[in-house]
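Give me structure tokens for this 493-residue protein.
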Amino acid sequence: MTDVGVKAPPGGLTVPRQRQRRSVRGILDRGDDRTAPVLAPAAAESTATVLVPAQRRAPAAPGPAPAGRVPEVVRLMAADVAAGSVTAVAAWELGAVAALLAVPAMAASGLQRRRFSPSVLDDAPRILRSSAFVLTAFLLVCVAGAVSLTQVLVAYAVYVAAAIACRALAYRWIRTVRRDGDLTYPVLLVGDEEGELARRIAEHPETGLRVVGNADVTGTVCHPDGSTETVGTVMARDQVTDVIVHPVCAGPETSAWVRRVAWRAVALHLIVPEVGAAPRRGWDDHVWGVPVLRMQTALHWRRARVLKRLTDVAVSFAALVALTPVLLVVAALVRREVGPGILFRQERVGLDGRTFDVLKFRSMRNLPPGVTSPWSVTSSDRIGPVGRFIRHYSLDELPQLWNVLKGDMSLVGPRPERPEYVSRFSEEFPHYQFRHRAPVGLTGLAAVEGLRGNTSIHDRAYFDNLYVESWSYWADVKIIARTVLAVARGTGS
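Here you go.
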């Protein structure tokens, strides 16, 4: 067995050049044959080959959306806009501002998502917090001289009252159409062996859930008539939108396939275990008395991916323009030390196992013909003074800003690795493959924690997955700031 603290291999492998882009199966394709249908349209594959070259999969054909799903979201947004518009009774300027900001303010407070048991009284504190954004905008309009302070106070009081009243009406409508069966969402239960949660859902249709099966720890769905199906078959046929996991099944065997399933744009919920106390901030929701926590994976959300990509494009373009003099100087020094060919290209594995050519400034002299390149070369005598300097301050990685601009990489994400090492590490460390759920990055959480080069692959994968599963925009900002400090200190290489 491989020691969990094993470090990166000492070397001895050569990277073959690939003329045609390929992908390496990993996060979405690996698994035993019981879960393979969830992750790939092809027949199940042997687990002996963890990552193999494959063509990019075509996305699954979208199935029918749950009846009334879009109207539920639209109704919530309409209720918030209506609440903002009512403030026009104080001043039309304030009504326009409130109508414009109501939806994003509610979204920022977590109130623009579907829940099993919506309650306006439970939401009142968050509605008040979200109203602070609207109040701030009101005060700015007041400072501009468009309205008086009295109008601001009246408009704010009207907005809060209207927001609560409109939400109450929207929640009442949602519960009604759910009871009528016009608004249901297919849910897959995991570990509900006694059928307690399924019974509660069946007896209380106002939750909006429709149970399509109960899976065990191996990913097999058992039906009341004794028949069994794979999780993949059930999810593809019934277009599952939610997965609820019982705490007794939250072990390594379950987490492997649930992790893959949860990355296919379904909402993952964990039943809060009965330990005599609640989480510090309480639970997010409940299914007729059974508390559940929604497990956040923000990079699922299209708006999060779009925001991250827009930031990548803007920052990488600005950095390439601003650093042009530095790039030219480094290029000239590299050309003088190592000769023709200032850029080094090497195949790496990125998002969803797709490969691309990463760019770097050459920092080493070429190897003699027939000599292989080691995995770690920090102490190689092939590195000259210029190469050592640009590696020490990570200047050799500046060309990767072009990879970021092209979309091969992101500013922040797991650091990319060569295909043969991805295959090897994924076999030795089952959790390693999951790091490819996010775009690889110029820097990353594991990198700023010092896990680069000849360090523990086991620990590196844990930090990479921690970043993927707890992503936030602020997390990227923090990692970039820590990277800048590390480079300035010369500890980023």
